Structures
1.
Amino acid sequence: MSRVNVMQPWLGKEEVAALTEVISSGWIAQGPQVASFEATFARVQQAEHAVAVSSCTTALHLALEVAGVRLGDEVVVPSFSFIATANAPTYVGARPVFADVDPVTGNLTAATVERALTERTRAVIAVDQGGVPVALDELRALCDPRGIVVIEDAACGAGSTYHGRPVGAGAEIAVWSFHPRKIVTTGEGGMVTTSRADWADRARRLREHSMSVSAADRHGSTLAPAEEYTEIGFNYRMTDLQAAVGIVQLRKLSEIIERRRELAEVYTKYINDIDGLRPVADPAWGTTNFQSYWVEVSDPYPLDRDGLLAHLASVDISARRGIMTAHRQPAYAHEGLGPGSLPVSEQLSDTTLILPLFHQMSVGEQSRVIAALISGSGEERWTT
Ligand SMILES: *Cc1c(COP(=O)(O)O)cnc(C)c1O
């Protein structure tokens, strides 16, 4: 019996061929492949502008920069997210202010955000947690009239939909991740998408030291034009090697989503019959890509979350604790937020686990996971 992993990227011969071609071309840094990846991503996600960067964390930084968030501002974020969401405001001198999430979706809502707003709030980072689309329209209805920018953190959201369109399509600005734990991967990588040409232009410059002439353009000319550095920028570039892999991955996106949703449907069918287990599901306003297929464990299931994790591990199934909470990490001890300050986030984080789900998952592997969930419930019929 071999281990069932929680996630596995789906990479193959086509990605290898794309990489070989880029290496043979002699140009491996940001260049034509990045431009082509951006154009493809913008088309697939129905975004007006797309700017590729080195990770979603750097995309978050640039999004806050172009949105004009500065020293002394406040940015409302969920604590219930990967820690990069909470860290990014500090990069521009702002302070993250934690808001609680909805107990069903795990996402911010207009009601939870409203309680966290102050005179100093300049932006909100709304996450499509685990791929579940956030109710963006309600957030924008709250924030737009107040001049607060809503940044959609769609790190996990490629292939999810909101009111029939890809997530992020209705955002003024959104950020994406291509880490191997996400839906499509470039090893490391990220993207900023935005409806605003001025923000896209500035993000494009900031990612490359705010040079007036891009490196690709300089190297493309024999007598390189003199460049200027218009403001203090960064090196947040993606490489053409990464982008070439990303282009192939995007071609597979709909197939990946279709397979993930098939596997999720099978899980849900069985889990709905197990008392005390509640699986993540599509919200009324969209569809999830099931980037994280999480299950909430409660009474009368005989094991608690950690007990179930240990039970799964005992049969070589690698599940994961649910989403973390940033406010309970040592890095945020200075905020002085004691237990119970974000009750729903804490509850979800402590009682959920993420089940294995990946494109190549076999029927046999999934049956093993389902059998272990059932045997953990004390029922005999599936124990083998
Ligand atoms: C993974 C993740 C990030 C960070 O993405 P990187 O590409 O690894 O920097 C940010 N926000 C959320 C919600 C994530 O899940």
Note: The pocket of pyridoxal-5'-phosphate is lined by residues 55-57, 81-82, 84-85, 127, 153, 155-156, 177, 179, 190 (CB under 6 Å).
2.
Amino acid sequence: MANVTSRLNPAIWPATARTDSKSGELSLGGISATELMERFGTPVFILDETDFRARAVKFRSAVEKIFGPTAKVYYASKAFTSIATAKWLAEDGVNLDVCTGGELAVALAAKFPTNRIELHGNNKSIAEIEEAIEVGVRFIVADSLIELDRINSIAGSLGKKQSVLLRLTPGISAHTHESIATAHEDVKFGFSIASGAAMLAAVTALNAEHINLEGVHCHIGSQIFDETGHILAVERLVKFIADVKKNQGATLHHLDFGGGFGIAYVDSDDPMDIESVLTRIHAALTEQCAKYEIEIPSIAIEPGRAIAGPAMVTLYQVGTVKDVLLEDGKTRTYISVDGGMSDNIRPALYGAEYSALVANRSSNAPTTDSRVVGKHCESGDIVIRQIALPSDIVPGDILAIPATGAYGRSMASNYNHILRPPVVVVRDGSARIIIRREKISDLLALEEG
Ligand SMILES: *Cc1c(COP(=O)(O)O)cnc(C)c1O
């Protein structure tokens, strides 16, 4: 019988992760890491269905409880999408945000109700806009005047009126606390409120014959650990809604404040409790609406990472181990695994941190200063820059990296012609592949002539 041990921090590991009290072996969804490796190979992404769905439902229940029954959660597909997960979300009453034709194709293949999909993107192609309007997405979130014009004319030629939100830039840098009140932001996304671009966009959209301007949207960043930025953004969006009402006499009744809710990757990360965060945002929303004497808009949020991230674990097999003498006379143990930056680009891209566990056994060996690296031809191909790991790790051991569900498989590449790993869903002692491992023939199939 498996037992939880103190090694498995529930903020980092999926709900069904356990380590066996005797063997020390990790199990996910009731299946041991060794069995998962033997059946599916490594590297492999293990997706805990119970955990993913529970997180999605928790968001849904929280927004409905706090903002009322019209409030919606749009899961951000870009964090990780597949037909299987889209079907879960459809069943569990969570909506879907897509930002390309490819993400939309997955949603359509899952028969996701199209009136629960919204389309994002700062440079949607004509074909993407056409398809979205044709299939009847709930919202297109417009990002530029050129795009408003395209949406209007495409909707007109299809004999439709498209519901639109405006993506606004409330001038908030969510990552840097000092600059949290910056009035202007040098980013590619959205219409700036401060510069007047947003009001011009609202006037343009309100006057467009085939556009139904329903509301406003913002997304202030990702992996955010405090709600100050979201609150400020909501306040600025409400003021904007009030200004539109005052200047144009038009009511924008929908407000979407995006995603960005942070998760724990390492023990020191302290993610916010989502209910209390949303409660504080709700308080700011009602206060601001009262101040400007406008009706409280219907609310949507767009979590991606906070649903998918902790639900997946990557299993790698250790290939080589070597000690490297450092300048200060100390040594660092380099542990090479059979994947790396092709299945997890985040450490190289953002300096992201991860934790790790020897998954196939327990170890009482003293720990040693270690670095977990991949098999790519770059010294920046690092999975974990610095971590204390047991000094008895040998080739063949399985290393489990938790919290790899968001922006892992979805950002995977074929660098060095490495095959992208499969995604295996575990639940109640059974496992099934939802995305298979790539084959060399998949890569060669792209070659012509
Ligand atoms: C990326 C993105 C999200 C999701 O962000 P998370 O940090 O994964 O929650 C939501 N909305 C938009 C518009 C995004 O671009």
Note: Residues 228-248 form the longest helix (21 residues).
